[in-house]
Amino acid sequence: MAVATETIETMSGRGQYRALAFRRIMLIGVLLLALFFSLAIDMALGPANYTLSEVLTSLFHAETVGDQLRVVIWDIRMPIALMAITVGASLSLAGAQMQTILANPLASPFTLGISAAAGFGAALGLVGGVAIFPGAVQYMIPINAFLMAMAAALFIHFASTMRGVTVETIVLLGIALVFTFNALLSLLEYLASEQALAAVVFWTMGSLTKATWPKVWITGAVLIFAIPLFARQAWALTALRLGEDKAASLGINVRRLRLQTMLTVSLLAAIPVSFVGTIGFVGLVGPHIARMLVGEDQRFFLPASVLCGALLLSSTSVVSKVLIPGAILPIGVITALVGVPFFFVLIFTNRRRAW
Q: Domain of life here (predicted)?
């Protein structure tokens, strides 16, 4: 009788797990459909508005539409719309894994100073013509931003591995980096000419308007490179959420896992920011929305974080076009307006129970 009861309980537990997994998969599917819908709307909006039917026809039957519509959709609007998706997905995935390896709900490329470092690197090129990597003067702005962002990310990582360093210390280090790079950026703005100052201010606001197909391919390639790496480590990253000691007892090399994850996160955070400028809070808000929807299991949390970040920035791109008719607002401004209230919610609610 006891064996039969145990068997029934086991079968019931398996049924509940399968139902939960199916629900999570359905939620991921809904996010995917919403992302496609947002992409279509983003490409429909602009100085010349098109209907969703015209956009879909241009996407799937380009040979049947006029040259003007095809050029507008494929050559002008699609790179911007896809850039929003790849950048949002990259920043959200970077924030998700930062929060995982640092055990910190406030970790993200923006709050830990990586975006601020990229802004300072770009300003060095825009104001002083300084190329951190002398052999690539033609691309010094994105390269400067990328190298400074990588340096900040690696600093955060190696600081987190020092003896006696706590989660609170990492947060304080990130805040210190934000203020340091913002102060240096303000100094460069003070010394800049009017033309250079305008370029720096526009860059630090974040914008997708200069997106091109090569930039889309590069950010997409980094994202495609990172997702399988994290997917292979899904079990280890999920176990790390139980704590370092428990993860180590399961045979996980925590130090190596953190180093590999931080290097990949650095690429995910630095390359998009180097192309589109400072875009805050996507890396913070996206993972938390995904976590509320599907939980901590990386098998579901990983794709949900990617889709939430992509949907968030794609929707923000839509909002930036409709708030003021005839004008496209800097997308970094919109994400900050969305992210700040969410940031306050994290501060004033007791999130420690989940961490």
A: Bacteria
pLDDT level of residue 211 (50, 70, 90 thresholds): confident
84 inside domain = yes
CA distances from 250 to 220, 240, 244, 245 (A): 34, 10, 10, 9
Distance CA 8, CA 17 (A): 14
Which pLDDT score is estimated for 8? 54
Residue that is written with structure tokens 């009861």 in the block: 5
* 163 located within any domain: yes
CA distance 217 to 278: 20
* The amino acid at 129: G
The per-residue pLDDT for 263 is: 81
pLDDT higher for 136 or 248?
248
What does the block give as tokens for 51? 């209907």
Residue-level pLDDT at 224: 94
Q: What is the extent of the structural domain holding 83?
A: 33-42+51-321+330-339
C-alpha span between 228 and 231 (Å, rounded): 5
- Whose CA is closest to 306, among 287, 280, 331, 293? 287
pLDDT for res 225: 93
Query: What pLDDT digit, counting tens, does each position of 54-88 carry?
Result: 888 888 877 777 778 888 888 889 999 999 999 99
CATH code (residue 298): 1.10.3470.10
> Does 152 fall in a domain?
yes
Token pair recorded at residue 26: 């359905």
Distance CA 272, CA 310 (A): 13
Query: What Å distances lie between residue 65 and 43, 45, 61, 68, CA to CA?
Result: 15, 18, 7, 8
End-to-end distance of the chain based on CA atoms, in angstroms?
A: 40
Phi/psi of residue 161, each to 5°? -90, -5
The pLDDT value given to residue 223: 94
Residue 265 in 3-state DSSP? helix
C-alpha of 182 from chain center:
21
Note whether residue 182 is domain-resident: yes
Tell me, what's the pLDDT at 355?
47
- Tally of domains within the chain: 1
